[in-house]
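Z., the sequence and structure:
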Amino acid sequence: MRVKNQRDFVAGLMFTVVGVAFAWGATNYNIGEGARMGPGYFPLLVGTLLAILGLIVAFEGLVVETEDGGKIGAIAWKPLFFIIAGNVVFGIALGGLPAIGVPAMGLIVGIYALTIVAAMAGDEFKWKEVLILGTILAIGSYFAFVYMLNLQFPVWPSFIVR
């Protein structure tokens, strides 16, 4: 069987692999039942649905033909690097790296760092727009996660709070 749309086929395979990985990882936790869900219930459900969706998309890539065949172009390395780096920087800023002495910088600094690094993935970088976006995201995240959900994680750098 010939692949008729490469983009759909590869995207479907990626969804399937990620979904199976999440569903498999969820089996390490208590699954529970529909009435008494355990911590593994939701990841198992979402992983299974993602894997099924991936199989459907991959199947469509095999049977639905497009004009150009859905060819996959070159990998955009710059955006890929900066988006992944932004997430890594956010994680490090939020929790720190105690093993090498990097203190936790908290939610607000982490969101600004994430926004700045991720904005470097684009073709244009405008400080004013990036800082406005960072401010909106920081306020929204504080309101949603700290104020509304009352989640307990550092908001400000640890050396300021102590």
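Residues 154 and 161 are 9 Å apart (CA to CA). Residues 41-63 form the longest helix (23 residues).

Let me know what you think.
H.
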